[in-house]
Amino acid sequence: MGATLKSWLFTTDHKRVGILYLIGSLAAFAIAGAMSILMRIELSAIGPTLTDNPQQYNVWLYFHGAAMILGFQIPALTGFLANYCVPLMIGARDVAFPRLNALSVWLFWAGIVLALATFVIPDPPDVMWTGYPPYSTMTWGNTAFYSFTVLLLGFSSILGGVNFLTTVAYMRAPGMGWNQLNVFVWSIVVAFVIQLIFVPVLGTAVTMLLFDKYLGTTFFQPANGGDVLIYQNLFWFYSHPAVYVILLPFLGITYEIVATFARNRVFNYKMVIYGGFGGVLLLAGEVWVHHLYTAGLPDWLRVGQMVSTLLISVPVGLLMIGLVGTLYRGAIEYRTPMLYALGVVFFFLIGGLTGIPNAIASLDLHLQDTYFIPGHFHYVMAVAGTFAIFGAVYYLFPKMTGRM
Amino acid sequence: MPELRTVLAAALTGLLVPGAAMAGAEPIADPAAGWDRLWDEMLVDITVIGVAFAAVAAWFMWRYRRRDRAEGDPPRLSAAAAVGWAVIPAFAFMADDFFLAAKGWELWKDYRTVPEGALEVRLESAMWSWNYTYPNGAVTVNELRVPAGRPVLLRMTSRDVVHSHFIPDFRVKEDSMPGRITYLWFYPKEPGEHVVTCAEYCGLLHSRMAGKVIVMAPDAFEAWYRAAGRKAAAEAAAGGEEA
Ligand SMILES: [Cu+2]
Ligand SMILES: [Cu+2]
Q1: B49 and A134 in contact by Cβ < 8 A?
Q2: Which domain holds residue B196?
Q3: What's the pLDDT band for B242 if we cut at 50, 70, 90?
Q4: In a domain, B74, yes or no
Q5: Residue B106 and residue B125 in one domain
Q6: Residue B180 is nearest to which of A275, A296, A368, comparing CB atoms?
Q7: Which residue of B has its CA nearest to A354?
């Protein structure tokens, strides 16, 4: 027993590392999901329902948001699925740097433990998953936990990015060209390129937050020459692309499942890769202002990024055409993973289309910060993204356990 | 050069019809009404796209279900067809994007162009109150009294953290931040009351950070405004004597 545990903890095998990611991310999903149930019960009636301490509610909200995105979605997709599938799909024995891989899963677990520690410390963070100053630098909640959790998971992601880009670039089976890669492998490549470009920006932002709160700097304090908006810009400069770090792999694995159970070839492969993934990569860094439409930025910036945000519908539309097109003249078997994958198609359709009103800067002046926004992104992330991950778990379960 | 054109048009009408240039005050474009219109068009747009897409997907799901151990028989796309399947939908989506962007921009201009003659009120938000200061020095807390029929401009800043001044009935909000000045305007037409709420989390009493816009008949407002101004002046004078 002890030996088995040790062999799992110190494993450098990509499949086992993947499963370690899966266990951690499902744990994060379970607890963060429980938080959302607590919140809904609390909101089910006017006045205190479960707790009369408003700070308790904020802690639930903090954990729900931070753990679902940083602890569940990103690690399940770019940790578990990438580790489990990419080497198998490109015909490599393992990833390029197996020990680095082990380090990234450890950092991920450390991040999860740190996030869970918020339940036992007396001053849990209460800064949502966004951590806007000056609130986050003034609150008695422990913003350091937020910063360090983000930094640990960020490092884990950067190491993963270096590892997987190297693996795909140099360890493909002989004769396997870039145009023969699985759609999922491409989605991981693009997701990690995005991570490598943008994670450092988030790391910078939360580090500045840490310095402001605990070490007396004033990056975000106007009274001492700082500016509150810098943080929001830096934060969303990462956190919009982070949506694609989740979206692309979950669509990628959905493509694999749909192609498998429709017994069909991916429709118009090059359109999907270059038009869809390439287009998203091209636009990912030019749309963050749509999170700041009400923050008093100059008009040219708000209107300009309204146009670039709307243009996201072009690559995403192509990805939807590819997905639905893969059903065309297929022989569809309705097994469990396929049911999840088809759920992704319809829920992502709703999630994507409800993003268009928010993209319009003038409509967003009313919609921003209302339930319409959580509605939109929960269709994309919470429903479509989670369906894709669950579908993938069912899809890979026989391979992982040797059981059907 | 729209400005030049407007100037020329105004000058010409001014020459031809004396007095017309003065009446050139256009009717004020109300962003709230524009919002409702664009929202309706938007719902039609995304519903049509969504239903069309979903119908095709559902049809494929039924039509191509597996029968008799069949395998998929994918279409062989020629190079031209493959490019066409990328470029034609891309242009269709782009056309819709630019169409929507143009409409959004039109409305944006209404939202961000403050009509002349607006009543300008300064707002300082704080944990947890909305503090309004009028041009004559009158001060209110959590109650923005305005006359019906006159646009209202709020110039906003914040004492502590980021708040967001949201008036749902007027379809508008804008953040107020320490160290920065932002603005929004709205057009109250009829007397009545409208909710103001804070739309950016700002601490434990964030959900109680509510106020009211009270739209008054113009003469009632005028009477209140004078009295509140006198009261503020008296208080300032008293404060000055004490100091
Ligand atoms: Cu975004
Ligand atoms: Cu507030």
Answers
A1: no
A2: 119-242
A3: low
A4: no
A5: no
A6: A296
A7: B46
Task: Provide ipTM, 2 decimals.
Answer: 0.90
pLDDT tens, position by position, A182-195: 999 999 999 999 99
Q: Using 50, 70 and 90 to split pLDDT, how confident is the model at B21?
A: very low
Q: Residue B16: inside a domain, yes or no? A: yes
CATH architecture label of A2-401: Up-down Bundle (1.20)
Sign, CA dihedral A350-A352-A358-A361, equals negative
Cα–Cα distance between A362 and A342 in angstroms, integer? 34
Q: Do B142 and B90 share a structural domain?
A: no
State whether B108 and B123 are in the same domain.
Answer: no
Residue B180 CA, ligand 1 centroid: distance in Å? 24
Cα B156 to averaged position of ligand 2 atoms, centre (Å): 13
User: First CA to last CA across chain A, in angstroms?
Assistant: 25
Alpha helices (runs of H) in A332-385, residue ranges in sequence order: 336-353, 355-359, 361-367, 372-377
Give the start-to-end residue ranges of the domains of chain A.
2-401
- Same domain membership, residue B125 and residue B198: yes
Task: List, for residues A24-56, the tens digit of each pLDDT value.
Answer: 999 999 999 999 999 999 999 988 899 988 888
Of A245, A320, A318, A322, the C-alpha closest to A284 is A245
Q: Quick one: pLDDT at residue A383? A: 94
Query: What's the CATH number where B172 sits?
Result: 2.60.40.420
Q: What is the pLDDT of residue B46?
A: 95
Residues B16, B21, B23, B25, CA torsion sign: positive
Domains: count for chain B: 2
| Backbone dihedral angles phi then psi of residue B168, each to the nearest 5 degrees | -55, -40
